[in-house]
């Protein structure tokens, strides 16, 4: 059952990611001339959207901006948040830890979508500004998570023994600490990616993200909702791709990052 879940999760992730990577190439073969809005299409059985574009072609070309923006945003946010969390976990002086983490606690109180809306309004809808706002939102929870995950590792007897043996900071932190933090960090990366997609999709749905004529999946869901009864695939297809990406990523992380001790116990003969 767990293997089946892994395969299913990997498939759910692979479909939207493939659409985001190679979809624009395939969509280039779709008719460039607009057809009747919310009507049948000559290129695919999914019909057309509000602008007369083929729904399948729009879905194939609309995933790359969302996925690429989310990946870059999470990577930048994790670089900053991980550094803050590790610095707070490594210090032995409580006042330094408080100095580092109390501003992070303040950031956790700020409503994320409101920050994105302010950034969009102040920058006239700049995609870079919106992505920066999403990254800013993610830094605080990442720093808190890394601090809690790393505290028991960086202050463990093994780290003290390595220090007594003359191991440098690179061997202790880049070697031992990062190796033991790889699993929780990998699991948290999946959560943060889902959060980034959620916030970006929410912003696009509200019309404060990408251009409203964009084929972005979230924009398509919001813009085509008036044709839900006559052209349901114009909403269902991009929405299904977003749900598949998020749900599949969570299932995939749960499957591959399960506790290795439990895996070993399941492999042991019983009786």
Describe the protein's architecture and organization.
- There is one protein chain.
- The model is unreliable at 261-271 (pLDDT under 50).
- This protein has 271 residues and is an all-alpha fold.
- Helix content is 73%, strand content 0%.
- It has helices at 2-27, 55-61, 63-90, 94-108, 112-122, 127-154, 157-164, 169-205, 217-223, 233-256, 260-267.
- The radius of gyration is 23 Å and the shape is elongated.
Note the main attributes of this structure.
271 residues; mainly alpha; 11 helices; disordered C terminus
Q: Note poorly predicted spans.
A: 261-271
Order of helices and strands: HHHHHHHHHHH
Tell me the number of helical segments per DSSP (H or I, 4 or more residues long). 11
Rg, Å, rounded:
23 Å
Helical amount among residues, as a percent range?
over 70%
Binned strand content = under 5%
Q: Averaged pLDDT, please?
A: 81
The total beta strand count reads: 0
Largest sheet: none
Shape: elongated
* Distance separating the two termini: 22 Å
The secondary-structure class comes to mainly alpha
Counting copies of identical and different chains, the oligomeric state is single chain
Concise overview:
With about 270 residues, the chain is mainly alpha-helical.
Topology diagram in text:
Layout: H1 2-27, H2 55-61, H3 63-90, H4 94-108, H5 112-122, H6 127-154, H7 157-164, H8 169-205, H9 217-223, H10 233-256, H11 260-267
């Amino acid at each position: 059952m767990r293997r089946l879940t892994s395969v299913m999760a990997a498939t759910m992730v692979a479909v939207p990611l493939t659409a985001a990577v190679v979809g624009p190439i395939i969509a280039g073969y779709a008719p460039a001339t607009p057809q009747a809005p919310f009507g049948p299409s000559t290129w695919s059985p999914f019909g057309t959207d509000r602008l007369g574009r083929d729904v399948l072609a729009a879905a194939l070309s609309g995933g790359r901006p969302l996925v690429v923006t989310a990946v870059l945003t999470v990577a930048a946010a994790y670089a900053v948040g991980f550094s803050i969390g590790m610095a707070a976990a490594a210090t032995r002086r409580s006042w330094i830890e408080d100095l580092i983490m109390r501003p992070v606690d303040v950031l956790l109180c700020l409503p994320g979508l409101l920050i994105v809306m302010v950034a969009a309004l102040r920058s006239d809808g700049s995609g870079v500004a919106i992505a920066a706002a999403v990254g800013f939102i993610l830094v605080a929870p990442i720093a808190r998570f890394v601090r809690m995950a790393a505290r028991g590792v960086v202050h463990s007897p093994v780290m003290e023994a390595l220090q007594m043996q003359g191991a440098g900071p690179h061997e202790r932190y880049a070697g031992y600490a990062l190796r033991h933090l790889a699993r929780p960090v990998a699991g948290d990366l999946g959560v943060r990616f889902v959060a980034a997609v959620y916030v970006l999709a929410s912003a696009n749905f509200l019309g404060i993200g990408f251009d409203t004529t964009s084929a972005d999946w979230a924009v398509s869901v919001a813009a085509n909702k008036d044709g839900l009864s006559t052209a349901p695939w114009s909403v269902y297809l991009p929405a299904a791709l977003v749900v598949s990406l998020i749900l599949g990523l969570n299932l995939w992380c749960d499957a591959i990052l399960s506790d290795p001790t439990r895996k070993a116990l399941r492999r042991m003969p019983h009786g």
